[in-house]
Amino acid sequence: MTSNNKVPRVPSRSWNDLEGIGLAIRQRVAVESLKEPSSIDLASLFEADLKWLLGYEYQIKHLPSDVEAMTLCKSKQIILSHETYDSLGDESSSGYGRARFTVAHEICHIAVHAKYLRESTSLRGESSGIRLNRSFLKPYEDPEIQANAFAARFLMPTFQVEMLLREGATINEIAEVFGVSYEAACYRVNSMKKK
Ligand SMILES: [Zn+2]
Fold first, then answer.
1. Would you say 71 and 106 are in contact if contact means Cβ atoms under 8 Å apart?
2. pTM value?
3. 63 Cα: distance to centroid of ligand 1 (angstroms)
4. What is the spatial distance between Cα 97 and Cα 42, in angstroms, rounded to a whole number?
5. What is the longest distance spanned by two Cα atoms in the chain?
6. DSSP label of 7
């Protein structure tokens, strides 16, 4: 959500468009990760590539307990909470998958949305997809819903999920391969089956 609880409208995007933007980023920073299904190194992307790739700096700060991350468009910064940052680098942490999803969500805001948002706008991290004060927005023009759709596809590219499913992988195995939560892998697989 934004600082004033109103979510700005952004140009509509198909989920395929968003996946294409994610794949282009992976090709630039982690091309190896496209050769076979694997967990993209988001800690490294965040710390080593964010600045040259997208012009953003990152900071780790205390944030309100319900905020995992925040994108500040005016000062070109991503702020992560200490909890999110710590989990991002710790595969054994119970918050590992969620932290990765949060960071991928914020990457969408800076790669896709920042140029459309007013200078003062900040986007607060909210990877759960709860909709607040934005019933006037269609899902395709809602930056929070777009960012969740992007994050799922960035972390779990369609062709790689399809490959694993053909090989008979379980949801648990898919979650493990991509470094996402069981819930995120389950949602991704089910949404692909609905197509
Ligand atoms: Zn967001």
1. yes
2. 0.88
3. 15
4. 11
5. 48
6. P
Confidence of residue 70 (pLDDT cuts 50, 70, 90): confident
Rg (CA), the chain: 16
CA of 66 to the centre of ligand 1 (A): 13
Q: Please give the structure tokens belonging to residue 178.
A: 């991509």
Q: Give the distance (Å) from ligand 1 centre to CA of residue 34.
A: 25
Pairing of strands 69-72, 57-61: unpaired
Between helix 143-155 and helix 15-29 the angle, nearest 10°, is: 50
Q: 169 CA to middle of ligand 1, Å?
A: 30
At 4, phi and psi to the nearest 5?
-100, 15
Question: Which of 75, 165, 65 has the alpha carbon at shortest distance from 117?
Answer: 75
Q: How far is the CA of 125 from the centre of ligand 1 (A)?
A: 5
